[in-house]
Design a protein that fits this description.
7 strands, single chain, two-stranded parallel sheet, alpha/beta, elongated, 5-stranded mixed β-sheet, 36% helix, 10 helices, 13% strand
Length: 242
């Protein structure tokens, strides 16, 4: 009587049919295997996707260790998953990173404790900003071209316009590098600044109200390189609303 029901069961539960054919070769350190965590985790993935996970170090399609995408923490470290091109490996990674997978990780208990948890977000490393210009030449250009409005160094700290931010203050602002590299398009500079082969000439009937600045893109690069050498001004903590 049971034999006729088997095909129906396979149709209703695709995971039962797939488990025999879909396999994933997973390599994991012995310490992780000894913790009992994998014995808890892998059957739940297999039940969800019908993929039988076999732990092996021979030609693994996925490796749990120190390389790849962070998937969980435990045993004093962040565990990462490195995968190959197998579709089953991608399924395993996506499941681990899903809400269901992360909840499964966090729900494992041993001796009344939950030793594994979702990975802690790692802080992004800001890339160092570099410019090809000559900072020494940039310092001279900044003093000559920018120093009539901005305090560019200690040499002209008494000569800048009080309403104009110093180079040190500008250096402390977000995306300061873009500000220096494209200053000539930021107001009020377009009204009196000419960059050779970049900015359009002034209109004959609307000349600049002050002596214009004239420089090349190489000059701009040199000034930005000089700004990169400056220590940002301490602007203090942000104002908090009461």
């Amino acid at each position: 009587m049971l034999k006729p029901l088997l095909p129906v069961m396979l149709l209703l539960s695709p995971s039962l049919a797939l488990a025999a054919d879909n396999r994933l070769a997973l390599s994991a350190p012995q310490a992780l295997a000894d913790s009992g965590f994998l014995q808890y985790l892998l059957p739940r993935f297999a039940l969800k996707h019908g993929v039988r996970v076999e732990q092996t170090d021979a030609a693994p399609e996925a490796v749990l260790g120190g390389e790849g995408v962070p998937v969980f923490t435990g045993l004093g470290q962040t565990w990462r998953l490195e995968i190959g091109e197998a579709a089953e490996a991608e399924q395993f990674r996506d499941w681990l990173l899903s809400e269901i997978g992360q909840n499964t990780v966090a729900s494992f208990e041993k001796d009344g404790e939950t030793p594994f948890s979702p990975p802690v977000a790692e802080p992004e490393q800001a890339e160092a900003v570099t410019f090809d210009g000559d900072p020494v030449a940039g310092a001279k250009l900044a003093e000559a071209q920018c120093g009539r409005c901005h305090v560019v160094s200690e040499k002209n700290r008494m000569n800048g316009i009080s309403a104009t931010p110093s180079f040190a203050v500008l250096r402390a602002l977000p995306e300061w590098e873009n500000r220096f590299a494209t200053f000539y398009v930021l107001n009020p500079h377009p009204s009196f600044t000419q960059i050779v082969d970049v900015t359009p000439p002034f209109h004959d009937q609307r000349p600049p109200g002050i002596v214009p600045l004239e420089m090349t893109l190489d000059d701009v690069e040199a000034i930005a390189a000089y700004a990169a050498t400056l220590a940002p001004a301490d602007l203090g903590a942000p104002i908090e609303a009461q």
